[in-house]
Amino acid sequence: MNLSLMLLPAIIFLFLALRTSGAVDTVSVDQVIKDGETIVSANGKFELGFFSPGSSKNRYLGIWFKNTSPHTVVWVANRKVPLNNTSGKLILGNHGILSIVNSSDIIIWSSSKASGTNVIPTAQLLDSGNLVIRDEMSVVWQSFDYPGDTFISGMKLGKNLVTGHETYLRSWMSVDDPFPGMYTIRLFMVTGKYPQIYIRKNSVIQTRLGPFDGIEFAGHPNSRHHSNHMYKTEMVITQKETYFGYSSNSTLVSSKSVMTPSGNLEISQLTLQNRKWMQDFSIPMDYCDNYGLCGPYGICSTDRFPNCECLKGFEQKDGPYDLNLVTYNWTNGCRRSIGLDCGPGEKFLKLSSMKLPDTQNAVFDGTMSLQECEVACKDNCSCMAYADPNITRGSVGCLRWFGDLIDVRVYSMNGQDLYVRLAASELLGSRSSFSKKYGIHIMIILISSAVGLGFAVAYACRKKKIKRHLKGNRYAFHKMSATVQIDDLDELPYFSLNEIVEATDNFSISNKIGEGGFGPVYKGVLEDKREVAVKRLSETSHQGLDEFKNEVICIAKLQHRNLVKLVGYCIHDNEMILIYEYMPNKSLDTFIFDETRRSILDWPKRFHIINGMARGILYLHQDSRLQIIHRDLKAANILLDNDMNPKIADFGLARKFVGSDNSVKTKRVMGTYGYISPEYALHGQFSTKSDVFSFGVLVLEIVSGNKNRGFTHEDHSDSLLGHAWRLYKENRSIELMCPSLRDSCIVSEVLRSIHVGLLCVQHHAQDRPTMFSVVLMLVSEGVLPQPKQPAFFTGPIEAVQSLSSANEYTITQLYAR
User: Fold this and answer.
1) What is the pLDDT of residues 367-389, one digit of tens each?
2) Contact yes or no for 753/778 (Cβ under 8 A)
């Protein structure tokens, strides 16, 4: 038989396989793409085809990221008209129009008419995820002009001023239905105004992002980090178009912003190696992100209670806030305490770290300096405030407000300066009218012997179910001091002791799932059937009020997929209880250090845990509302959910810090043997690099399956860190790997993880990388710097036990005063 005939079936099969798997990224005229066939971009990153969302049986034509977890659709063609079976087809006509037809050959969706008949059009799925139709000259239609609920690199959010066409995001109706939902996010930009972004529910503004500060839409520290390092943002304002967009600086990381059916803008990152989406943050992030909730001239802050107060020189329209009221309403906002007379004595009060007011009633001039802006505002009696919205170096720009200042808030970082016009007499003092009139009243309440009752009443102002909490429970704070701030717990649900007793079967020993320095932990089931972990302060615990407050303050204000979620709290007489989401797989140490269970964590799971921990710590150090040093990172404090996703827990020793890596010295060293850095153990100095050290120890423990504390080797007396260093120097790092990983390991990932771990445990803090560098090193394939000799190179880790020990798990060192 002729060889070509023998190979023909294989050639046909290969062609069909390539087509079905989406090896071709272009659709030609009259080519038919049937349900079940896909088109894949040349870089293999995006795929186009028919799909059913969630539990829906309907079929839609969409574009999605290929082979990611979870499955992520970025564009849907026929959002409003689904197919009810798998007989749909996609066809490119000779007029350059893409059409979806059903089983009756009826067109249910088509792209806009784009070109004449004297062209040969093609449709192509680009590497950016953009589906384009080309004629012989140019792109005549593209899917990026018609976004759905998802914004990715290369897209534009804005308006074509020539055609009037606007690009914006609209949520799905539900996770199972891509029909246009109630929520939109769109750029606000008209002539003479300044760009900002609104999230709306139908026509009602829910949240405002901005204004644009030259790098990002100001105010959210999370987005600033990603803009500076991973993405290049741009704001384009011309006579033809106005839009905001971004492009990626890395081929290894992708990003998406999704307008969810519930009205949140969720920003996530995808690392191309493990193909898993990791949510970075969600907007709105907190109570003060709700639009205009403090009314005109009101200012919102999450660091106090009540959250609203009036700007300096203003007073509440509806009278002062009354602590005896169950609810309070700031919708009407504030009015001036003393009216303006446009006299020469009027000046401007500088307010720092602010979210600048809504710019709808503001005018922008891009040619003025800040000094010129002040003069221009002062010369116009209707000008209420001014600011330079652009933070980029050497920039000029002047925003002037000619009406009420709406949606103002204060940030702990990344805010901007706002200059508010005040009467001359108002500038003599420095305290706000709220503070003058009611600060003493609040202070008396805080320090009075009835502080418990004051807390309960204030808590009632913020919770709908206060009657249930207060009924029959006049709880007292026998272990609480007058320094407790009302706003420490205002965002966190309160549970009565009766509810906790019922949930845990009266703290039954059969429900006990662990114990730490704080006290025992019990599994509980709440009335709404939620499973929770209940951490109860033990009477013999060396931790107490400070650690309890610290954990509540820190973790209640943090939200990240790799941090354990605090569900609520209970304080009743001497009982102090924290309620967390329940982690069914307990902690990391119960797997990697257990001879029988360690095989459950194969290498892909361990590498996923390493990456998740890194992202969680990066969030604490750089992206969270509160910059946090954890100080007690260890395997027992890494909890695992159903899918083995890591969750950092136990913030009792955490500390807030200001700046990047400023070192802080403490007289009380607390942490866990084997994980604390040498500068902290020996000199009481800690910084973000202390957490980096602990992370490095964790990485080496995860790879090896050995505890750093108490590690011994038959051939030498090195610590685990020293053993890893010895193997690295001899080019034998793979021998550090736990034997149970031999069948599942990816050698390059194992070696890279060991290398990164060694970089993190270097003796001197300045030699260790930042967590941002660690995250990039783990997902990249570039050359890594050479590590230096690690700390605690020789001898067992107990060499640092000259410190006094509080218990088996933590250490405490007291210095003489």
Assistant:
1) 899 999 999 999 999 999 999 98
2) yes
